Amino acid sequence: MQKKFKAFAPASAANLSVGFDLLGAALKPISGAVLGDEIVISESDKAGCSVSVTGKYAHKLPTDSKKNIVYDAYLLFKDRLEKMGKEVMDVHMELSKNLPICSGLGSSASSVVAAVLALDTIHGNVLGENGRLELMGQLEGKISGSIHYDNVAPCYFGGLQLIVQEDGCISTTLPDFDNWYWVSCFPGIKVSTSAARKILPKEYSRSDVITYGRRLSAFVHACHTHNDRLASKLLVDVIAEPYRASLIPGFEDAREHGASIGALATGISGSGSSVFSIFEDLEKAKEMKEYLERNFIANEDGFCHICKIDRRGSYAEEL
Fold this sequence. Notes:
Family: Belongs to the GHMP kinase family. Homoserine kinase subfamily.
Distance between the termini: 12 Å
CATH class of the largest domain: Alpha Beta
InterPro entries: GHMP_kinase_C_dom, GHMP_kinase_C_sf, GHMP_kinase_N_dom, Homoserine_kinase, Ribosomal_Su5_D2-typ_SF, Ribsml_uS5_D2-typ_fold_subgr
Subcellular location: Cytoplasm
Largest sheet: 12 strands, mixed
Protein name: Homoserine kinase
Enzyme class: transferase
């Protein structure tokens, strides 16, 4: 009987204002809606790896399956196993592309995590946790130009992740706040990661560097001491948002509206164009969702969800 598995990887919001390139959170809609990419992998009679794509945003991907990051994942996985002296089976991967590309929701990371998890699962988990994560980072780096784990780590592990990359530790889970509702909204327009990085200054003032370090370290402290009030006050960005806000029409108005109805913080999700707004009151979160749907979403590709932190992260199950 042929093996067949399904792997799921949730959406994620990186940076979170205070943690440029170093913080990320996995998100899960409270409505039960699917917010993440899925891959069904099965043994195949055809040599190598074949890829098919379904889902709402399938038409946004290259028509040539060999230009899909999922196929790149197979090639890199194959190379890694061959170096370990192991054979790679012939497989078919069906990607359900549920996240829009260039959205600030970790779309590429979700596909990468689901692909690597699916490949390693069908091969009996030969890479292990760290091996998977390293491979995921390499694939994400191929897309963005350099390795960043702030989407990959929360997408893989779930929860709120702090990127460490020291002494053999890539990422660690921070305590999060269960009383926070995250209103996550994609307006339907794309902001490429490369464009969002080009707009940033090459150098920062000493005061901005000190402020960044102070706020990030204080945020980590607030998480570990369960001080949600302090944590929310620290969700202010001096590194990226002052420059990237101009790339996202309506962002400043959304932030002002959020503040007027009691948002703890509003910021850019990843490099944009998605935004997040945090509330303690579910009714206020619903009010913000309605505002964003009326005033921020630009076309039919956009959507808005009220989310909680997804503490489970990615998973694979046999079919």
